[in-house]
């Protein structure tokens, strides 16, 4: 890590465009950063910033080890990866919800309070990209489940008998609907966060605080404009 440069890790995928737009708005002009090119790092000498492009789930690792001073990652990824990084700011974009979902044909009965009775799911298999999030949720209910880690198309698992349920992200709800799955419990809501390497945060404190303040002001202005 060069002393007077900040290295910022951006996630390719769903969070990239918002990340680029946010940084460009606060004067770190990076609108030419493009995940379709195979270029994975960009020098921005005018801003004294280097941008690196990583897989969304790898961002906390790059930041924990100091390969990047700062990074942008979903709260879901931070909870799942559980890396030792400092979470500095809620950037508010990339909103999504985590839920437990099951096939229509096997949804549990409802309790008098209107919630689904999850007790029958004890010791069942749950397909997910997020085994830690899933286990933490069920352990919090005094239950144990068997997570089966998948890397995509999670909704397929209960349809083909790989698992009784899934824990996954829902955004529009279209994927659940198309695969005849019903949400039986909400787990958490997530947005993207700015994270920092703990050593960088101490060594480059003023520079990072200045950037955080500019981001905070921009987010506030955007909120007021809505
Ligand atoms: N509908 C959605 N589906 C998935 N992620 C979403 C959605 N809406 C917002 N997000 C956020 O975007 C982040 C990145 O998602 P994306 O699909 O780009 O990468 P990924 O597929 O999770 O990562 P990887 O490519 O490493 O597996 C998620 O961690 C989450 O915080
Ligand atoms: O509620 P919806 O708007 O339908 O979005 C939810 C879907 O989006 C995500 O998948 P993604 O697109 O990341 O693909 P993946 O299955 O390969 O992870 C998530 O895992 C759901 O499958």
TrEMBL record:
Enzyme class, spelled out: transferase
Alphabetized SUPFAM superfamilies for the sequence: Periplasmic binding protein-like II
Stretches of the chain forming a coiled coil according to its record: none
InterPro entries in the cross-refs: ATP_PRibTrfase_cat, ATP_PRibTrfase_CS, ATP_PRibTrfase_HisG, ATP_PRibTrfase_HisG_short
Keywords: Amino-acid biosynthesis, ATP-binding, Cytoplasm, Glycosyltransferase, Histidine biosynthesis, Nucleotide-binding, Transferase
CC annotations in GO: cytoplasm
Catalytic reaction equation(s): 1-(5-phospho-beta-D-ribosyl)-ATP + diphosphate = 5-phospho-alpha-D-ribose 1-diphosphate + ATP
Subcellular location: Cytoplasm
Enzyme Commission number: 2.4.2.17
Broad class of where this protein is predominantly found: cytoplasm
Residue span(s) of domain ATP phosphoribosyltransferase catalytic: 55-216
Any Pfam family the entry gives: HisG
CDD domains: PBP2_HisGs
Highest taxon of source: Bacteria
Signal sequence range: none
GO biological process: L-histidine biosynthetic process
UniProt GO MF annotations: ATP binding; ATP phosphoribosyltransferase activity
Pathway: Amino-acid biosynthesis; L-histidine biosynthesis; L-histidine from 5-phospho-alpha-D-ribose 1-diphosphate: step 1/9
Family statement: Belongs to the ATP phosphoribosyltransferase family. Short subfamily.
Quaternary data: Heteromultimer composed of HisG and HisZ subunits.
UniProt domain comment: Lacks the C-terminal regulatory region which is replaced by HisZ.
Cited function: Catalyzes the condensation of ATP and 5-phosphoribose 1-diphosphate to form N'-(5'-phosphoribosyl)-ATP (PR-ATP). Has a crucial role in the pathway because the rate of histidine biosynthesis seems to be controlled primarily by regulation of HisG enzymatic activity.
Protein name, UniProt field: ATP phosphoribosyltransferase
Species: Desulfosporosinus fructosivorans
Lineage, top ranks: Bacteria, Bacillati, Bacillota, Clostridia, Eubacteriales
């Amino acid at each position: 890590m060069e002393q007077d440069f900040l290295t910022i890790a951006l996630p390719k995928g769903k969070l990239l465009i918002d990340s680029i737009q946010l940084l460009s708005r606060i004067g770190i002009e990076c609108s030419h950063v493009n995940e379709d090119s195979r270029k994975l790092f960009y020098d921005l000498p005018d801003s004294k910033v280097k941008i690196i492009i990583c897989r969304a789930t790898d961002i906390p690792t790059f930041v924990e080890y100091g390969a990047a001073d700062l990074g942008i990652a979903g709260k879901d990824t931070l909870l799942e990866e559980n890396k030792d990084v400092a979470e500095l700011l809620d950037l508010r974009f990339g909103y999504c919800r985590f839920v437990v979902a099951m096939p229509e044909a096997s949804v549990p009965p409802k309790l008098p309070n209107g919630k689904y009775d999850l007790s029958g799911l004890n010791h069942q298999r749950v397909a997910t990209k997020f085994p830690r999030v899933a286990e933490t949720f069920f352990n919090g209910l005094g239950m144990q489940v068997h997570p089966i880690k998948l890397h995509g198309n999670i909704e397929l698992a209960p349809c083909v008998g790989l698992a009784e349920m899934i824990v996954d992200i829902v955004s529009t709800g279209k994927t659940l609907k198309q695969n005849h799955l019903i949400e039986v419990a909400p787990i958490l809501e997530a947005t993207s966060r700015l994270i920092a390497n703990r050593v960088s945060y101490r060594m480059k404190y003023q520079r990072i605080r200045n950037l955080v303040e500019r981001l905070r002001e921009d987010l506030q202005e955007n909120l007021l404009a809505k």
